[in-house]
Amino acid sequence: MSISEPQHQQLGALYSDHHGWLKGWLRGKLGCAADAADLAQDTFLRLLNREQGASPAPGLREPRAYLTRIAQGLVIDHWRRRDVERAFLDALAALPEAEAPSPETRLLIIETLVRIDAALNALKPRARQAFLLAQLDGLSGPAIAAQLGVSLATVERDLNAAWQQCYRVYFL
């Protein structure tokens, strides 16, 4: 997608006027200058890649609020990724060194886990809980229905929704 010259100028002005401030704000949230710089860039990249236009509407009244909203989502994603990565690396530490995956495989696994985590997080809480009970605890549909206090048909719908989310992670 290409952007028009006025959109390019508007985004450039937004960047030059607020990038330093945003980076400082992110540094306060993250406690790391490098991560703050990365997420500040990602914020403007997200603006550039928006489907409905490359920059905010002309005459944006609160550009810092606009940028903060985007950056907050990226901070949440950043912390989630860190949590998933930490949990995976903790699990790897329990394996014998000979069974540990290569660094490339580790990265692929972490990326997949992050995508699955995001997909499951998009589910309704009951559907996510039903899926985790089935996959992690090995419970049957009737056992999940009893534990959650819902019908078996509801559990089946919830599990179907969860599997559809997982399918999207791998095939779409």
Give an account of the 3D structure.
This protein is an all-alpha fold and 172 residues long. It contains seven helices and no strands. It has helices at 5-30, 33-49, 63-93, 103-121, 125-135, 141-148, 152-171. Helix 3 (63-93) packs across helix 4 and helix 5 (125-135) packs across helix 7. The mean pLDDT is 89.
Secondary-structure blueprint:
Elements: H1 5-30, H2 33-49, H3 63-93, H4 103-121, H5 125-135, H6 141-148, H7 152-171
Helix pairs in contact: 1-2, 1-3, 2-3, 3-4, 4-7, 5-6, 5-7, 6-7
Quick description:
This protein has 172 residues and is mainly alpha-helical. It has seven helices and no strands. Helix content is 77%, strand content 0%.
